[in-house]
Each structure stands twice: as structure tokens, then as C-alpha cells.
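Assess this:
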Amino acid sequence: MPLSKYIKNNVFLSSDIKASLVCLLLGLQVAVWYPVLSRSLSDVNTHSLIESQIDTAWQQTQHQAQRIKQLVFSDMPWVQHKVIATLKGLPTQWQVEGTASILEWQHFQETVEEKSALTLRSAVWKRQTNGQWYGRLEMSMAQPVNNRTYQNWLPVRLRTDRFHPNDWQILSTMRNDAHASALISYQNNPQWVTAGIWLPEAGVTVQSVSLQSITLVAIDGVPQTIVTATTGGQGD
């Protein structure tokens, strides 16, 4: 074989080897750096997503705070409310006060929870002799999120049981000065009662006691009367 042809063939072979080697090296570099670059790109995307979520949450919190400041309960005139703490001009704590039936309180709670995310901090409840409830609630602003967990602010569980007159019996009545008291039996459990006493086992308040009858008020505000010298009673 002529020398010139040998040299020419070796030059081509050397070029092919160099090209293959370069491609191999490039492939190795890509294999080494791809996970790092991919992870860096993923970190950048994750960081951007987190920033976007934080910005959205902050905007929602601001909108909620403004709504709290502007709330008007025109259909619930018994509700008194005010902002009791702020941070950078935004409400962070809210106080509600009023006296109403438990059903009205439930309606108020559902109305508020539908529009705002709140966390109950403290609650003071007092049962009135007329069956209504005085309440003073203090709440903190929470982050507005979808599918919030339902909170029950009410002082008692709403009973759905009907009033059963046969559960009640007046065993004795007596009067001391201007006050009357009665020995009653509820589901065969006797106890002395006077006006204003709350009977949690029955879910009623004793509204009034006379020598002839006792008037009870259920949680839903409906009065019921049981009469002396009868077993059971009559609903009003």
C-alpha cells in the first residue's frame, strides 16, 4: 500500500476517534450535570410557587380583615362587635357580644363562618331566665382556606328531641316570701328548682314557678308548661 494512502486512512481514523471521544465526553458531562441543573430548576420553580402562594394568602388575609372592619348585621340588631387588636392597621382580634336565643346564635355563627376564617380564643356564656343566652366571644383572624374545619362556638348542643310531657311530674310546691320553688321529677329523677335554674340533662331553663304550674323554656326558645297535681304536662 502506498504510504500516502496509509497516512490518509490513519488521519480519517484519528478524526473518527476524536469525534466519538468528544461525543462521549459531552454525554458524560450532561449525565453528571443534568440532575444538578434539573434540581436547581425545580428549586427555582418551587420557590416561585411558594412565593405566589404566600402572596395570595396575604391578599386573602387583607381582604378578610377589611371585611371584618366593615361587617354590618342588619338582620341581627342584637349583635354588637368590635375590633380589639390590630397589626399594621389590620384587625387581628375581634369581639362579639349580645343576648339572643340559641337558634339566633347558631344563625350568626353560620353567617360569620361562611365569610371569614376565625379561631375562637375565649367565650363567656350566661343562660338567661327567659331562655336566651348572653355571650361574649373573642376571636382571632385565621388564614382563609377552602374546606375550613367547622367550629362549634355554641354553649350547648342543640337538642332535636321533642318535649315529652310524661317525662315530667311536679311532686310538691312551696312559697317562701315572694319566691316559689318546686320539687319536680324529670325521668324519675327528683330535684328542687326555682326560676332561672338551668337543667342541662333536659336542655331547658325553668322560666317561672308558681303553686299551680312550672314553665320551662327549651334551647330553641319554645316554652312548655307542666301543671301541679298532674302526671306529665301540657305544651303551650
